[in-house]
Amino acid sequence: MKQRASQQPVAAEVGRMAVSTGASKVEVSETPPRRGMLVSDHKTAVFLAGTNRGVFEQAKSAIRDAAEAATDFSWLSKGDPVFIKPALNSGNPYPDTTSPIAIGAMIELLKEKGAGRVIVGDMSGIEHVKLSQEGVSGSTRRLMGASGMTTAVLAAGGELCFFEEGGWDTFYEELPAAGSNWKGGLMMPTILKEVEHIILMPRCARHVLAGATLGLKAAVGYWRTDTRLEYHRDASTFHEKTAEGNTVDTLLKKQRLVLTAADKILATFGPDEGRVCQPKTGLVIASESVVAHDMISLAWLIENRRAMPPVAKKSFRDSSRLLASFGNRVVVGLLSDWKTALASETLTKNALDSIWDDRVLNHAYQVFGGRPEIALEVANDLVPHDLQKRLTEMTTPLSD
């Protein structure tokens, strides 16, 4: 295994961002960062572990290989509580939601490294769960059970947490980076105050509204209903607010690792259904940097989409920006009322021709202090060299 590239903590990386904006708005960037974009002054490691299609034990080993390559776990003291944030927008199985195999393997690894409580939690999408001051409709607990994740968590010795079950007042306010597009603070679940460390475990998937749903987008699962309402209602900066939502202090100070099992990829429509790609060699993607992780994860999504029949990529529901804008207004209506939905801003869906189309990443380069120069490494011997080369090329701007 190759030596890990030197990395700086995420909090330090953000501390280097352009804070001179003060309280003014951060400008929305729609220009792909091929030239003139600030580049981080250090290489950022992203590790890939391969797994052959359908080999269960190999998939578990790949999770461990990638995690142990990406971090040395020196941040973990014996008995420390750890929170794992999966992607559980619905009750559908992987890859519509995070892989139960991956969750179970990560809990076991953390326990071996000395972790105390390992808590897995989320709050599902508004189509399934709605928390209000008056109460709750729907159940993330039920959806996690349906996805197969609950069985994996309990079998590995983990605990469960569902944010809506604590009620409206079990959230606290955090502010994103100065100059953000958010009008108010972000309401985050209080369970995050009870843990020392956070492991983010998203999936690699298409998203009908956003274009893709990866690590940065997974932060939405933390937010209370009123925060989600602002996010969707003020949709002209939807993508920028996605990146900015990851700059709250709790995530900057406590998030240690981002790891995605991507041996299955939800390659069309999303986030709850679509065409599933299962390549002969699947990947596990791991990094201490959520931005670098998402660059590789998005490249892997695009790589798998390229292998699909053109008709699948050109279908109306997969490619239509009109459908995305309408769908976002539906979400606003579910979060509030239809009058608010009709008055909400227009959402423009990201294209997926290259990673440079993605406004979430383009803005993340600004708020996280520059575009990471990725050192893409392998954590086991199952990653084809030509695939590693293609992903490197896909995440290197033309000017580099």
Would you kindly provide a brief summary of this structure?
With 400 residues, the chain is of the alpha/beta class. It has 15 helices and 16 strands. Helices cover 34% and strands 20% of the residues.
Describe, in plain words, how this protein is organized in 3D:
By secondary structure, this protein is α/β, with parallel strands linked by helices. It has one domain (37-393): LarA, N-terminal domain (Rossmann fold, 3-Layer(aba) Sandwich). Helices cover 34% and strands 20% of the residues. The chain is built from 15 helices and 16 strands. It has helices at residues 10-15, 56-70, 100-112, 140-147, 149-155, 225-233, 238-244, 249-254, 290-306, 310-313, 316-319, 321-335, 338-343, 359-367, 385-394, and strands spanning 39-52, 82-86, 118-122, 130-132, 135-137, 159-162, 171-174, 186-189, 197-201, 205-207, 211-213, 255-262, 265-266, 276-277, 281-287, 371-378. It is globular. The model is unreliable at 1-36 (pLDDT under 50).
Present the secondary structure layout.
Blueprint: H1 10-15, E1 39-52, H2 56-70, E2 82-86, H3 100-112, E3 118-122, E4 130-132, E5 135-137, H4 140-147, H5 149-155, E6 159-162, E7 171-174, E8 186-189, E9 197-201, E10 205-207, E11 211-213, H6 225-233, H7 238-244, H8 249-254, E12 255-262, E13 265-266, E14 276-277, E15 281-287, H9 290-306, H10 310-313, H11 316-319, H12 321-335, H13 338-343, H14 359-367, E16 371-378, H15 385-394
Parallel strand pairs: 1-16, 2-3, 2-9, 3-6, 9-12
Antiparallel strand pairs: 1-15, 4-5, 7-8, 10-11, 12-15, 13-14
Helix pairs in contact: 2-3, 3-5, 6-12, 7-14
